[in-house]
Description:
Helix content: 40-55%
Mean pLDDT: 88
Number of strands: 4
Structural class: mainly alpha
Strand order of the largest sheet: 1-2
Distance between the termini: 53 Å
Amino acid sequence: MDAASNNSVDDIRNLIDQVRIPPQTGQYKVYIIDEVHMLSSAAFNAFLKTLEEPPKHAIFILATTEKHKIIPTILSRCQIFDFKRITVKDAKEHLAEVAENQGVQFEDDALHIIAQKADGAMRDALSIFDRVVSYCGNNLTRQAVTENLNVLDYETYINITDLILENKIPIC
């Protein structure tokens, strides 16, 4: 359930009605509520009783990026798992696997730039990778990636800095 668009008491009541029905196959029913911090106060309060005494077959996963907006009575009944952003190294390694699986040739620096631009979000890294591949074709070079992503090349940065330090600003 997306709580950003289903944040009313009626939406939670519908969920609670579904929770009462045991699973037809398997032991558990898993309910994922994304952006749970967007629920209204009334919706949180309506959901509280079900969270306090959930049916044995129900598992709730409450996902949010802003847990400080969740009322303390809900938080106190949850196990909290804080996820970290993906490192540039790990993102680059995964992008390398994806590139190899798709038959895309790449320079190591090209994937490194994409991983840095993604800022720890693998979905963003894959989206950027797809965009750059559609622009560059099956050969990702550092130059093509920097042009496509409007990243200031290291050499250009050094040259501009040197010109500024030498007071040759019009040449920049």
